[in-house]
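FORM 7B: Structural annotation worksheet

SECTION A. Query
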Amino acid sequence: MATMADVDELARAMPETVVERADDGRPEYSVRGKTFCLHRSRRRDAVDEATGERLGDVLLFRVPDLDVKDARLADDRGIYFTTPHFKGYAAVLVRIGALDRLDRAELRDLIVDAWLTRAPRRLAGTWLAENADPG
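SECTION B. Predicted structure
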């Protein structure tokens, strides 16, 4: 079961990650000035279906491409979603309350994939070489 503390720890563990916080504490994680994960502000495009209120608990994760996005959106657990604003954009959204349906390893994979989409090639290549699965 993953938490926001896990998001913070795992994102910070990636090389050269910088965390900036909005005035209300929402984190944005970037590598060399390129955001790979963030806690979105309330937006018109993400609303609670039951109440119509703007969602304040939405995380954005970059994904490698639209095929990966489609695969995540097809996950039948209902963890990942998108909005019309992100049509054609390689990112998925996750409600903070849905993090508990991810285990820490899956969250780590999500964060690593997000970081790899934004890290410079040389930095990403070095990280991948150092973290290659020996099996």
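SECTION C. Observations
The chain has one domain: 4-121. The helical segments are 4-12, 66-73, 104-118, 121-130.

SECTION D. Sign-off
Analyst initials: ____
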